[in-house]
Specification:
Elements: H1 13-26, E1 35-36, H2 39-46, H3 50-62, E2 66-69, E3 73-76, H4 83-102, H5 107-122
Helix pairs in contact: 1-3, 2-3
Amino acid sequence: MIIVIEPQSDVPIYTQLTNQIMEGIARGYLNPGDSLPSVRAFAADLGVNMHTVNKSYHELEKKGIIHIIPKSGAVINSPVVTIEVTDQLLKGFKPLIAEALVLGLEKEQIQKLVETIVSDLKGES
């Protein structure tokens, strides 16, 4: 999996890293039980501050995507769908869907966008 950081982006670097790790898991490049690189090694490889990688790992842990084992590293969790996870996703989706509606997209167009994204992440054509 290749991580590309865009320093000039308005998106914070830790968020870029968090999003790209999640995308790598969604695409199947990383699987439950796989270990992520150490904070120090990953930061050196990416040319970013260790605190940036650490913040990304803690965001992923807060979302339940990884488990941080002190002095050992971070491991990708098996997916578990809970009410809390569903509620968290709903809170993230709702403003995006509201924005799409305000910008004039119809329900069917939004559904098509979601289907396209899922197909892309799953490697379906």
